[in-house]
């Protein structure tokens, strides 16, 4: 499965998880009604674009509902929160975990935690929550029970038994919001339950709520309340870019053109961080010539000035991507030291033409790239209508390919048609994105795994280019069941070699995560120097941020 790292005001995400949800920004909405930052009972108030109405809010804090308020994730906590930048799991309701073997996860629960109504949090709440997802499959959106066989509780220890060896499953299995058995056991229909008065263990409880704005208030009995800086979070239903810039927002997720002269210029305390959240790539249809020839794919890769493509597409905010398949610098500790230049590829038209020649394509007297029959190399690159940054990138790719004599056209179907054609293998080259899950195994498996390999005309869930390799499959199979971290890295090296030598996709540039912060009232936001979390305002990621920022002095 591939992931989209999109501008929040342009589109919803492609199929995928986590990284995939974005905040929609309305350019013509009314401004929020807010308190001043110091008006909440002498404490501090944060104004955040963490949620968005459609166009107004519905009161649904069921953490398993697909239509929940995004902030349900700071009311209900999981056992562990993944930092998808580096794959680490940060303890929350779980104090520690171990994997004694590839089929078992043993979690020691945190002591001294209470629900927001004063009841004690226990292992029974954990057992109840996981059983709830098993009994109500519609609530199991992350597919936990596709991995789990059983859950066993003994005192403050919870043991998860997997259906099969699967070391990377830990990040999914342990990132489930835990709900209170003493309240949820009486819910008639947990699937339709909107949980209008949520009771969690998290740093915030629901305050005032109306369809245009609601607040979260600090949970003073929170087990790490000393780490929670904001006493109140104000969440407007409408968050236009004009509002974000002019009304004193503390935190937002939004792509802004010319961010220095918009967001940064609007306030001396304003800053931004756009870390890589995935890799944007050209997906070649490997069932078609000439893309089925690795030499032709190498020629395409060498023909590209990736830095120019990245700058044109994303206004200089992101870096060119190499061929390692890793998300750098996030996954630098996994980088194969033997990989030339860390997988970076510099445009080399002479080497590109040599690679094309190995595939049977040379330039004729007019400069056209032709095959043995004399026919010019002709193909179409597909991207989504309205996704303007991807279109700019594709247009630059088109110019560079045409400079070497290829005839390249661009197809821009609507999103649904694009996704269907790509999933069914009805394309030449298609734009796509991969990575950003925080798991090296998951990133590579979704791109290369044979489990997703289906014939053209059948809908694929991932591996849209329909790649198959014994070397990749062998490394993936071993990586999935290997607990030893050094051995995991060696297997990661093997997969990077496959990516660089076989080029199942042609990486272009990294897709950004668009974090906007103000240090006027709060400091210690995530940054390049302190990448403890992504800037994302959704999923469990805000738990990492809201328990790390500090009050400005």
What does this structure look like?
This protein is α+β, with helices and mostly antiparallel strands. It has 3 domains: 179 residues, 3-Layer(aba) Sandwich (D-Maltodextrin-Binding Protein, domain 2); 124 residues, Alpha-Beta Complex (Dipeptide-binding Protein, domain 1), CATH 3.90.76.10; 235 residues, Dipeptide-binding Protein, domain 3. The chain is built from 14 helices and 22 strands. Strands 17-16-18-13-19 form a 5-stranded mixed beta sheet, with helices on both faces. A hairpin with a 4-residue loop joins strand 2 and strand 3. Helix 6 packs antiparallel against helix 8 and helix 12 packs antiparallel against helix 13. The longest helix is centred in the C-terminal third of the chain and has 18 residues. It is globular, with a radius of gyration of 24 Å. The N terminus is likely disordered.
Strand content of the residues, in percent?
15-25%
Largest beta sheet: strand ordering: 17-16-18-13-19
Main beta sheet: 5 strands, mixed
DSSP strand tally: 22
Number of helical segments with 4 or more residues: 14
Domains counted in the coordinates: how many?
A: 3
Query: What is the CATH superfamily of the largest domain?
Result: Dipeptide-binding Protein, Domain 3
Write the layout of secondary structure elements.
Blueprint: E1 45-47, E2 80-83, E3 88-91, E4 94-101, E5 104-109, H1 123-135, E6 148-154, E7 157-162, H2 170-173, H3 181-184, E8 204-210, E9 213-218, E10 232-236, H4 241-246, E11 251-253, H5 263-266, E12 270-273, E13 276-284, H6 294-302, H7 306-314, H8 349-358, E14 362-363, E15 369-370, E16 378-382, H9 388-402, E17 407-411, H10 415-423, E18 429-434, H11 440-448, H12 470-481, H13 485-502, E19 506-512, E20 515-518, E21 522-523, H14 541-546, E22 550-551
Parallel strand pairs: 1-10, 16-17, 16-18
Antiparallel strand pairs: 2-3, 4-5, 5-7, 6-7, 8-9, 9-10, 11-20, 12-20, 13-18, 13-19, 14-15, 21-22
Helix pairs in contact: 6-8, 7-9, 11-12, 12-13
